[in-house]
Write a structure and sequence with these properties.
β1 and β2 form a beta hairpin. The termini are far apart. The chain is built from seven helices and two strands. By secondary structure, it is mostly helical. Strands 1-2 form a two-stranded antiparallel sheet. 24% of the residues are buried. About 3% of the residues have low confidence. It is globular, with a radius of gyration of 23 Å. It has one domain. α1 crosses α3.
Amino acid sequence: MNTTPDVLVLWQWGPITLNATLLWTWLVMALLVTVAWWLGRNLSSGVQISRGQAFLESLLVLLLRQIEDVSQQKPRPFLPFVGTLFLFVATSNLLSIIPGYIPPTASLSTTTALALCVFVAVPMYGIQRQGVAQYFRQYLRPSVFMLPFNIIGEFSRTLALAVRLFGNVMSGRMIIGSLLVVVPFFFPIIMDLFGLLTGMIQAYIFAVLAMVYIASATQAQPPSPPSPPTSPTT
């Protein structure tokens, strides 16, 4: 049983290689686009709405509430990015119940790409909200000597974000593969169901951590307190 789709090379021509990671990634994206189009093709603002629209609105409300709870800011600007991250990771993990499917999140290259998206989005949101000077000034807090440590922290949390998702998804597949050898009938079904739950949890954790990083970059620093008034001389 393969634990990562990187090892499955489907087509190769010179330096160009098509492996299962790319194939499943594009299929997941195509599925999300198709479902979004299908659910949103007949949207209505009236009282009577379709089940698809009701599901879509419920999902959007849930995402907006979670983003607002984490960021303590208006959630609308962050919904497209954070919501897309959650839906991609969740769909990738949920489809693992299909025989022969290997989630692209079991590839370190995929999780690294997702983490790099967060790495780029954090300063973009921060600069948009605070301005260039105000955003980069936070790297000098509380002292200019903290600059290298703050920069290292940006890279280390990006690495942790990628490795955490990759490790959790891959370890789950390794456990299922081991159980297929030892107990080939009953326990793998239970582990598949458990994997669906953990896959949703991993998608939630990844989206929440991304929102935490963005929120820390977009929250303006409190102004320094005014100096106390001097007493008038007599």
